Amino acid sequence: MHGKLCPVRSLLPVVCFASCFASWFASWPALSAGLQSQGQTGQPTLTPTQAQALVQRALATESLAAQDLGHAGHPMRYQLHKTSPNLTSTKEIVETHDGDVARLLSINDQPLSPDSEQKEQARLQALLDNPSLQQHRKQSEDSDTARAMKVLRVLPSAFLYEFAGTGTASNGTVEKFSFKPNPHFDPPDTETGVLTAMAGEIWIDPVQERVVRLAGSLQQDKEVALGLFELDKGGWIEIEQADVGSHQWRIVHMKLVMNTRVLIKRKSSNSVQDYTQFVPLPPDLTYRQAIQILRSLPASPSQPSR
């Protein structure tokens, strides 16, 4: 409901960045207020070699963290508030080693009607009665994450990174880099080929060597699959990540604007997603236990704060 999301299980800017653009082909169906840009006056400048090295170390950290999340080592419960031009929804999501389980809490910031609530409870009951449904969802999550990881691994070589000054975030100073396609990068497949048309910015916490913010846009129309599929110039994605507790870094905000064409059919996407109220869970939690947790929640969600 409310469209396909980037896989929440990845929960890392570079992974979801890769997955969103890769998933458009696979499934075809602004600056944050917390970051303030500063000029380079009086700030030490990183050489191209130093800039590339810091970015590579940060992306390596994200790759290791993504693998850890892929094994459900640190599951979380959280709320996802998604807004698009025609619909707003709030879901409670619980991560488990059996895959994520969600409960729809509200539509257009209003509690579900009795009929909609009954249908949502019936959907959760169907997951309990038919484990194959959850297995299918888990397989889809794993497939999305595998595509995302494939792109994540080539990000250090796919772009050229240039130091662009410093910024401040809630946890201190961050280093800002611009990136553009590396003309020597030879994409090994369709998903990574999309990167040859992208440019943008990446913000890194130099102490923890984690990605804090990533924003990228398509600099030109990009055709793939012999022209059967096209991503329009100007599409962009903006993602913010933060430590949500116990040194666990997750996506907390994402905005995606994309226009696509498949054969002769065009599709537009314009959505904002906010992830809030993270609560750690036991690593051995099953999807059945997750459903029990979701069913015990009140129907009216808390409003996200930004």
Walkthrough of the structure:
This protein is α+β, with helices and mostly antiparallel strands and 306 residues long. It has one domain (13-295). It is built from seven helices and 14 strands. Strands 1, 2, 3, 4, 5, 6, 7, 8, 9, 10, 11, 12, 13 and 14 form a 14-stranded antiparallel beta sheet that branches. The longest helix has 23 residues, at 48-70.
Mean pLDDT: 80
Compute the CA-based radius of gyration.
20 Å
Helix fraction bin: 25-40%
* SS element count, helices: 7
Instruction: Kindly report how far apart the N and C termini lie.
Output: 24 Å
The ordered string of helix (H) and strand (E) elements is HEHEEEEHHHEEHEEEEEEEH
Major β-sheet, in short?
Answer: 14 strands, antiparallel
Report the structural category.
Answer: alpha+beta
Q: Which regions have little confidence, pLDDT < 50, spanning 5+ residues?
A: 1-16, 22-42
Count of DSSP E strands?
14
Domains (count): 1
Tell me, briefly, the overall form: globular
> What proportion strand?
35-45%
